[in-house]
Amino acid sequence: MENTYNKIYEARNQNEVIIFDIIGETPVDINSDDLDLYELVTACETKVTEMNNVAASYQNNADKYDYLVAAGVGLISGVIDITVIGDFDFDAGKAWSNKAVNKFIHKVAEQTGYKGRSLKGAIEHLEKRFPVAQDNVWSGKKISSATTHHLDDLAHHPTLLGMVSGIIVHFFRVGLFSSKDGSFNKVAIETDPKELVKIWAPIIASLVLTGILQWIMNIIEIHLEEQLDKSIPEGIRKLVKLIANTPALISVIKVIINWAGHLVSDMAGSKSSAGGGMGIPGVFLSLLREIAMLPGLKDTQLPQIITDWYGKRGGYKFDLRKEMAVIHELGKQAIPVIINEFVVRGFYFIRHLCEEYKANNNLAQINWRNVIPFGNRTVEHMLFISSATFTALDFGDALIHGLKNCGGNPAAFAAAFALRINYAGVCRFTVAVITELNMGYKESTLQLLASEGEARGEFVKAATVNREINRERQRRKDTVDSMISDLDEL
Predict the structure, then answer these.
(1) For the CA atoms of the chain, what is the radius of gyration?
(2) What predicted TM-score, i.e. pTM, was given to this entire model?
(3) pLDDT for the residue 22
(4) Is the confidence at residue 30, as pLDDT, over 70?
(5) Contact between 265 and 105 (Cβ < 8 Å)
(6) Three-state SS for 174?
(7) Which of 246, 204, 213, 245 is CA-nearest to residue 232?
(8) Cα separation, 294 vs 300, whole angstroms
(9) For residues 374 and 371, what is the distance between their CA atoms, to the nearest angstrom?
(10) Helix or strand or coil: residue 430?
(11) In a 10 Å sphere around its CB, with 0-12 CB exposed, 13-18 middle and 19+ buried, how is residue 425 labelled?
(12) 393 within 8 A of 75, measured Cβ to Cβ
């Protein structure tokens, strides 16, 4: 600290009058009569205290008991993962997702009037109940195929862009397709003029109603201003606007419901291949395909790779059901990770609550910043230790499992190793590492700023003393000069 102060002070000559305020780096004149240097010193000290308080939350205060508990919880969670969770079982995940999707289709069909029991009948009912104009418009256009048209047709994506595409198809009768070669295609849909009138009638009605209501509002407002010197309240304006747009809003909501209902009818394939056909792409694959449409990416191999994932290349298809299967298995893997998280944070909370109560003997005096198991370096460091222990045990088990079941085949070893890894645990450990590094960086940065603030405070104190000494010297000099002047007059 002394060296820092000397460095700052020596950088200025003895009669320097400019310093820098720690709060805003604003140049101030220390010889100005309008400047209260004592107030500036107080401001510096307050700022330093604030930074030290914030830095304290980034300091690791874990002791041996914290480390032992963190490592022990990580070890127990790892054992649970090895003995209970086991391998990443994609087949089990597919069985679960197929059952869940079929059950969901039945439920939606029954809610819309279906009375049968078969999956084929439920799909057929939904297809008739929720038809879409672009369903087969791709045929003969060489922009898609029977196996990939749900991926190529943006309106079959269960995403925000998919919903917007469905609305565009309905009102503008244009199908939007993204092909495996990266091209974007628009296909006009032949529509009977009477159907167009039926589609646009609510929108036209809203526009006409808006114009009429706005005209009435203008007349009322003119009357109010002339007779009462008042204007129409903003709330009434918004209500009138909502009423005017109601027909259009209802029409759009119906389109969205129809779009969603049609997606449900395609989740498990068509009525001719119920339960085994090409379902709709999942959210992940849909978003990936939409990203692949961007300039630069569309000219790469990414669109073709995504098509291969979704299509039956090599007997494999990755539709919504497969995506749900992966999420299901990852959810199982997350169980020991969540246990690890809850136990570590719970231990920290209970222990520090007891310590705070013991120190203050009064719940009202407890410093909850030291108790809440979030946002402080100690608990995050404990989670780093527990996650590292869990991941180390997980990788060790995967290594042993791979060597045991590979039969000397490197490809078999890689497959067995990959299926044994707990990916939820790997992700949590990655987050713990990033959090640890980030908090360490913030701690060192705040400590450096606090040190600079203390040095500037010391400089201001020295400047304060120096200013008072100079003023005293000037006062004495003025007194002596006055006395000499009086003597000269005598």
Answers:
(1) 36
(2) 0.71
(3) 41
(4) no
(5) yes
(6) strand
(7) 213
(8) 10
(9) 9
(10) helix
(11) buried
(12) yes
